[in-house]
Amino acid sequence: xxxxxxxxxxxxxxxxxxxxxxxxxxxxxxxxxxxxxxxxxxxxxxxxxxxxxxxxxxxxxxxxxxxxxxxxxxxxxxxxxxxxxxxxxxxxxxxxxxxxxxxxxxxxxxxxxxxxxxxxxxxxxxxxxxxxxxxxxxxxxxxxxxxxxxxxxxxxxxxxxxxxxxxxxxxxxxxxxxxxxxxxxxxxxxxxxxxxxxxxxxxxxxxxxxxxxxxxxxxxxxxxxxxxxxxxxxxxxxxxxxxxxxxxxxxxxxxxxxxxxxxxxxxxxxxxxxxxxxxxxxxxxxxxxxxxxxxxxxxxxxxxxxxxxxxxxxxxxxxxxxxxxxxxxxxxxxxxxxxxxxxxxxxxxxxxxxxxxxxxxxxxxxxxxxxxxxxxxxxxxxxxxxxxxxxxxxxxxxxxxxxxxxxxxxxxxxxxxxxxxxxxxxxxxxxxxxxxxxxxxxxxxxxxxxx
Amino acid sequence: xxxxxxxxxxxxxxxxxxxxxxxxxxxxxxxxxxxxxxxxxxxxxxxxxxxxxxxxxxxxxxxxxxxxxxxxxxxxxxxxxxxxxxxxxxxxxxxxxxxxxxxxxxxxxxxx
Lengths: 451, 112
What we know:
Number of domains of chain A: 1
Low-confidence stretches of chain B: 1-48, 52-68
Radius of gyration of chain A: 22 Å
Radius of gyration of chain B: 16 Å
Distance between the termini of chain A: 24 Å
Mean pLDDT of chain A: 97
Number of helices of chain B: 2
Structural class of chain B: alpha+beta
Helix content of chain B: 25-40%
Oligomer: heterodimer
Number of strands of chain B: 5
Largest interface: A-B, 27 and 27 residues
Distance between the termini of chain B: 31 Å
Helix content of chain A: 10-25%
Structural class of chain A: alpha+beta
Low-confidence stretches of chain A: none
Strand order of the largest sheet of chain B: 1-3-4-5-2
């Protein structure tokens, strides 16, 4: 979760594996939208001497649909290039790296960024990975040098960040165990469990982030403030290992191998046999997967895993009524009139996109709810997604029926549905989030983690 | 007396050829063969489709138009089906689709 190693093929290609997408109106610069796409999951910070980097052979993109057809109207494309200053040493760095042009930094990466085919930044420096106090002694300041102003109100950053997504992977993938409620788990006849606090399995690991901040007007159509956002990674069709040169040679047109819009869709809604196909398609093709959203297997599992806890949900599942609430949240946006004063509906096209109504102002941090729209905070998921939103709890609760009364007002969700959580909050993330671009925290250093 | 290198050369050459063949990526079909080459002697193959270096990346599909120029860098060939002569040719960010039974048969014979 939310899309880390979510499909069989892409789990073998971490450099192209998207993990999370965020889209929100920037709280410190409200006229701009921040889009973040994370790649390369679950990085152990000490993973040297060849530390993590983007793929020079991968086309990374962040797409924006502003007319509701599930196709990109604005695309930001990122291509990376790695250079080695001295190939005769095994070292990533030969001394402290205190600036992005430090001669001590031996293997460095830069990138070009284009907006719908027009280059808007070239040769932009990435920061190094956070190695430790001798190699990267003031990492926060060093990484800040890699925040580039491109003109036109566009700011960009690409490089390592602390993982900000929090989830109890170990328990959830142990047959749907939620530690705070595990005393209620069926346990399949095995000894009963005792409720316990959640464990943040993605704590103290890093990811690679591509973050771009763009004026709202550059992404939206006049009078249509809602956008749909997703990221893709593409590879050329042919890869050949050139044993003579000791390197891969790529050829042919790029083809999409990874996609991510809403968190957890491909992870827990799309069946195993379709996940890699889903990754290869645009959102406009998602109609073919709609039944996995409107008849989600996980909703049927909850009453089985937690006997007697979800009788209303069990009855809803048994009725086989399509979950129009989930369809609205994940595939069309929420139409006006459903939630007073709010909509992020983009039209009837069923497309998994992270929909953001850019006319909703950011909620002051003191008033934010990590449960987003479910918590009465219209500036949070599923209206876009902020870095601190508890998307696991939000989607679990929605799947358990909390949002079904939006469709059938007389449906009474189970009491447990509104309390579902894996027991984690943003405080479960050790690296503090930033209050400014690129918002995700300073990555953990290899010297400090694992500790 | 032959050197150690000379003794090993045929085996290494065989390994290289096998490695190139086995590592060619693409959708493999029954009876298909793949071959990577730095040049291909195009003996008049029928050009079924080709794509330029600027694909429609957002949709994951490419349009069909030949650049008409010899590309720099390696050319890679994927014989999808030797019986029908279904061949894909890749260079740079372009691809072409050919249907040429004779060429497919020659390539298949070349890799034994």
